[in-house]
Write a structure and sequence with these properties.
The protein is mostly beta strands. Helix content is about 0%, strand content about 55%. It starts with a strand and ends with a strand.
Length: about 120
């Protein structure tokens, strides 16, 4: 059972990246998924989340003000993956990005580095 992030990298200001959070050993649809980030010297902060899309949950999304309008979180059920599409990237978006899944248990991925050059 694990979460694996990918898709990070080095990009110039104004560029785009799509981060992936793939699960193995469990079905992401049943879980609320959140993306967090942590820059050097800073605390880990929430970036975006999406509720479960099973049962009474409707896949509601949330974005922190710092990324609102530039980031989209969405699921690909067939791939058991949640994506974070980021555009208009800024140097202050530079951080290690982590995905987190929570329902009956909770899981963290290992993180993927995003570096935005000015």
């Amino acid at each position: 059972v694990q979460l694996v992030e990918s898709g990070g990298g080095l990009v110039q200001t104004g560029g785009s990246l799509r981060l992936s959070c793939a699960a193995s050993g469990f079905t992401l649809d049943y879980y609320a998924i959140a993306w967090f980030r942590q820059a050097p010297g800073n605390e880990r902060e929430g970036v975006s989340c999406i509720s479960s899309s099973v049962g009474s949950s409707d896949g509601t999304t949330y974005y922190t003000n710092a990324v609102k309008g530039r980031v989209t979180i969405y699921r690909d059920k067939a791939k058991n993956t949640v994506y974070l599409q980021m555009s208009s990237l800024k140097p202050e978006d530079t951080a290690v990005y982590y995905c987190y899944a929570k329902r009956w248990s909770d899981y963290w991925g290992q993180g993927t580095q995003v570096t935005v050059s000015s």
